[in-house]
Specification:
By secondary structure, this protein is α/β, with parallel strands linked by helices. The chain has 15 helices and 11 strands. The protein has 2 domains: 217 residues, Type I PLP-dependent aspartate aminotransferase-like (Major domain) (Aspartate Aminotransferase, domain 2); 132 residues, Alpha-Beta Complex (Aspartate Aminotransferase, domain 1). Bound molecules: pyridoxal-5'-phosphate (PLP).
Length: 390
């Protein structure tokens, strides 16, 4: 019997040895063997079967991280999933695995701002050049390709401005030019989009967000196909980036309800977005308006939408900040993907460098994460606060 993934998430990782429904947390630096021969045997097994969890030292993980990696490998339909201490660790590992001095990379203009800092500024010090592409004009990828281009780094939808992109077209441009591809899929998670199946070489998810779902743990996952597996395996070994077993346990626990939570995040977000579109000052950055470019691209690739959206508001900065501050149910803070709703005024202009986002002086972006509260209460909170941006 082949169960659906929703069932698999509920029934996986039972521990028959301890007769517990959940896997034990195995903490280890030293792993003990009966003899030198047994150590060598395990090392040989690890070389022959590098995704099989034959470990001889804690830096490679323990059975607790192995269980999580296996679940995510199945969810991603990938060859393997590497686990990192934070989501950004996975972004770093993806780039560090493939890119070398002298290379160039092409990155989505609306990428997560730490990723922008890493690629635009930090990599420059290693003689690696970054060019940014317009998420809605893929000719800007083609125009930037040179013999040195090693990687196209996508984030879909774009951070804060939420541009959906023609993912198959990006992959086909990359394949034609023998360029590797990576995508940051934190917004959709493989529950809504399976990038490796689509043809990406690498797919990143910040486990801090929806995987854990409870705002109490950080982690990252980097899913890879067979083509890049060895390169990432070497880089992982060199950097020592790995998730700890306690964190892996919490992420595994969160994953049990990933589908249930995301379905609810989606239905709550739809209700809130439908309410907000009635306001003439606000353009809701969420795949809602049938016929719009973003809606069509979302529909083509995604099975659903998560709870994070942007509001492009025409008003003064002072009024927009007053609106955000007066929200009571929405917390003000970074991160997202937990059970609770959050609101932030995004200082995009102040952070400078978007090449392709044309925000006029009286336009501001507020990011909302729609949590699992009763949507009626969220709408009431928003409705009360919106009077400040009349
Ligand atoms: C949060 C986030 C990250 C980084 O994840 P951390 O777990 O916070 O390090 C990367 N990409 C996107 C799109 C994110 O939202």
């Amino acid at each position: 019997m082949v169960y659906s993934f929703k069932t698999f998430l509920k029934h996986t990782a039972k521990d028959f040895h301890n007769q517990s429904v959940n896997p034990p947390i195995v903490r280890a630096s030293t792993i003990i063997f009966k003899s030198m021969q047994n150590i060598r045997k395990t090392q040989k097994q690890n070389i022959k079967d590098p995704t099989g969890g034959h470990y001889d030292y804690g830096r490679q993980g323990t059975s607790t991280t192995h269980v999580l990696s296996k679940i995510l490998t199945k969810l991603e339909e990938s060859y393997h999933v590497f686990l990192t201490p934070t989501g950004f660790g996975s972004v770093f590992l993806a780039i560090f695995s493939l890119v070398r001095p002298g290379d160039e990379i092409i990155v989505a203009d609306p990428v997560y701002s730490p990723t922008r800092l890493l690629t635009k500024d930090y990599l420059k010090e290693f003689n690696i050049k970054t060019k940014f592409y317009n998420p809605h004009d893929l000719n800007s990828i083609k125009k930037n390709i040179s013999k040195k281009t090693k990687l196209i780094f996508v984030e879909c939808p774009g951070s804060n401005s939420f541009e959906f992109q023609d993912l198959s077209k990006i992959i086909s441009i990359a394949k034609k030019n023998k360029i590797f591809t990576a995508i940051d899929n934190t917004w959709g998670t493989p529950y809504f989009l399976k990038p490796i199946k689509l043809g990406f070489d690498m797919s990143i998810v910040s486990a801090t967000k929806y995987y854990s779902g409870h705002s109490d743990v950080m982690g990252g996952s980097l899913a890879v196909n067979k083509k890049v597996f060895k390169k990432v395996q070497i880089a992982e070994k060199i950097t020592g980036l790995r998730m700890g077993p306690d964190d892996a346990y919490l992420v595994t626990r969160g994953l049990r309800t990933l589908d249930v939570r995301l379905d609810r995040h989606q239905s709550n977000a739809m209700k809130v977005a439908n309410f907000l579109t009635k306001n003439k000052k606000i353009k809701v950055l969420y795949p809602l308006k049938k016929g719009s470019l973003n809606y069509r691209l979302w529909k083509r690739y995604y099975e659903g939408a998560s709870g994070l959206m942007g509001l492009r508001i025409k008003s003064s900065k002072k009024k927009v900040i007053k609106f955000v501050n007066s929200l009571k149910l929405f917390g003000h803070g970074y991160s997202w993907g937990g059970f609770e709703s959050l609101a932030l005024h995004q200082e995009i202009r102040e952070h400078g460098d978007r090449s392709y986002l044309n925000l006029s002086k009286d336009e501001h972006i507020v990011r909302l994460h729609i949590g699992l509260e009763d949507p009626k209460d969220l709408i009431e909170d928003l409705s009360r606060s919106l009077k400040f941006i009349k």
